[in-house]
Design goal:
The protein has helices at 13-22, 38-42, 51-56, 68-76, 99-111, 124-130, 141-146, 148-154, 166-194, 199-208, 214-225, 234-251, 256-270, 281-289, and strands at residues 3-7, 26-30, 46-47, 60-63, 90-93, 115-118, 121-122, 133-138, 155-162. The protein has 14 helices and 9 strands. It is of the alpha/beta class. Helices cover 53% and strands 14% of the residues. It has 2 domains: 3-163, Rossmann fold (3-Layer(aba) Sandwich), CATH 3.40.50; 169-289, N-(1-d-carboxylethyl)-l-norvaline Dehydrogenase, domain 2, CATH 1.10.1040. The strands form 2 sheets. The protein has a 6-stranded parallel β-sheet with strand order 3-2-1-4-5-6. A 3-stranded mixed β-sheet has the order 7-8-9. Strand 5 (90-93), helix 5 and strand 6 (115-118) form a beta-alpha-beta unit.
């Protein structure tokens, strides 16, 4: 059974690493905030002092951190993964990053004798806890097959999107839809709230009608309850929409709805809601309509 190095123990990474431990894998973890490793250490994980140390102990290294700059530091820093990579090591990045960075990592990993997959996920925090994530993967088919059991210890499905960078492209297209859907849901809820409707009843209508969506199921009840605990942070949604905007501009794809959603999440971030769940975008609408949407 492969030895795993796992780097990044945030909202998604910690439960993903925990599922690997529960499936019997030997896991060495690293996190920039060391205290976050304590829970996994109590479950049997080894703790590394640097990303390079985590990679040195592993056959497969999984990374999931917040953005391009964090990924670059983990891979290219003085104590980074690529600084002395052992030949044959397989690298899986499940962060949401730019396709250009994913392609660069794949080329540099190959030059060092390793292999790289860009494998972002969808399924939110609950999917990470339950082990039901979907991986959208860019990279060589043989590398994906070699890591299949590892993916399926954390998720329910692996979809190969194409060559390196295609997983990252798929995730940005996917999250553009998520952001647009979420903003649309909240705008509709603002109309209903301003009209004096019972919001629990309205969410049931949305869930049972043509406006039904995963976002309605995930965020509608949270907004009604005034629950902004993080499944997916507003600031990360904004980061992903910005990446999608840059990508679409470079490809010449007109994206008026993406730009509108990005502006909405920028407003939420400017109001100080970046560390809350993206459902906190509803609080911006509450200010605009002068009325609470949720409790």
């Amino acid at each position: 059974m492969s030895r795993i190095g796992f780097i990044g123990l945030g909202t998604m990474g910690l439960p993903m690493a925990a599922n690997l431990l529960r499936k019997g894998y030997a896991v060495t973890v690293y996190n920039r905030t060391p205290a976050k490793a304590d829970e996994l250490a109590s479950e049997g994980a080894a703790v590394a002092a640097t990303p390079r140390e985590a990679a040195d102990r592993a056959d497969v290294v999984i990374t999931i951190v917040s953005n391009d700059s964090a990924v670059e530091e983990i891979y290219y820093g003085a104590d980074g993964i690529l600084n002395g990579l052992r030949p044959g090591t397989k690298l899986i990045d499940s962060s949401t990053i730019s396709p250009a960075l994913a392609r660069r990592l794949a080329a540099d990993a190959s030059a060092a004798g390793g292999s790289f997959l860009d494998a972002p996920v969808t399924g939110s925090k609950d999917g990470a806890i339950q082990g039901t994530l979907l991986f959208m993967v860019g990279g060589a088919e043989e590398t994906i097959e070699a890591c299949r059991d590892i993916f399926l210890a954390m998720g329910r499905e692996i979809i190969r999107m194409g060559e390196s960078g295609s997983g990252a492209t798929a995730k940005l297209g996917h999250n553009a839809i998520v952001g647009i859907n979420a903003a649309g849901l909240i705008e509709g809820m603002a109309i209903a709230a301003k009209g004096g409707l019972d919001m629990e009843s309205f969410v049931r209508v949305v869930q049972g009608g043509g406006a039904a969506s995963k976002q309605a199921d995930l965020k509608g009840p949270k907004i009604v309850a005034g629950d902004y605990s993080v499944q997916f942070a507003l600031s990360l949604m904004l980061k992903d929409l910005r990446l999608a905007s840059v990508l679409s501009d470079g490809m010449g794809v007109p994206t008026p709805m993406l730009e509108a959603a990005k502006s909405m999440f920028q407003a939420g971030d400017a109001k100080g809601y970046g560390d809350d769940d993206l459902a906190a975008l509803s609080r911006v609408y509450e200010e605009w309509i002068g009325k609470r949407i949720g409790r």
